[in-house]
């Protein structure tokens, strides 16, 4: 990683701007949304950068809108993505040939891998080790137990956030410089789009759980409707419901609150009549 002086040489953004993002990122989970998840916090975190890059209110509004798209990953890893996003927004503000769609595509592509790394190290490793040390002392009545737990967990957490932000900004700048010639941006956009769609597809299969409960009986013959659907295409029903909700949001502009109410209502009705499990 470059030194701070080299990193910001010839750039609109400064270390002060990124430090504002760094401190704001601690509040990223403070405004969690059920439909956009951590997106409000992400948009709030990157506001200092956007205000610096887009003095015009219309441009600022567009930038805030695209930074409010669905976003979710391990909190400790978010500054890394914020750094990359800041470098791409800086390029978008100064280069009219920059593909704006690349910004969100890269974010979506990074959410899954960063969550995998972050959850493994922070939730599955650092927290467990820190809790083990802290509780051992706490059970003996030692006041250092909870204090040591917070220190052991938050030191790597804090350092990952700090260096991750600047590393992300530096890597984003290098990537933009290397891709700025030829059709590099278009290829990167296409690759990020494919990666993003793959991540979303995996989320649908793992997070949307809808199954038919209906069973056809004719004499001794029993046909399970869900088994038949799975033979055609596994997880077809969750995919169909996801596309239907997407159609309602994008084409019919139905409010998220009404869609949630509808999902609850139809879920209860279909469960009551034994259609869904």
C-alpha termini separation:
52 Å
The total strand number stands at: 2
Query: Biggest sheet, in brief?
Result: 2 strands, antiparallel
Mean pLDDT: 82
**How are the strands of the largest sheet arranged?**
1-2
Q: What is the number of domains?
A: 2
Give the helices and strands as they follow along the chain.
HHHHHHHHHEEHHH
Helix content: over 70%
Q: Which spans of ≥5 residues are poorly predicted at pLDDT below 50?
A: none
Polypeptide structure, described:
The chain is mainly alpha-helical. It folds into two domains: about 5-200, no CATH class; about 210-270, no CATH class. Helix content is about 70%, strand content about 5%. It has helices spanning about 5, 15-25, 40-45, 45-55, 55-65, 80-95, 100-140, 145-180, 185-205, 225-230, 235-250, 255-270; strands spanning about 215-220, 220-225. It has a two-stranded antiparallel ribbon with strand order 1-2. Helix 7 packs across helix 9 (about 185-205). The relative contact order is 0.09. The mean pLDDT is about 80. Keywords: Membrane, Transmembrane, Transmembrane helix. InterPro entries: GatZ_KbaZ_carbometab, PTS_IID_man. It holds the Pfam family EIID-AGA. This is PTS Man IID.
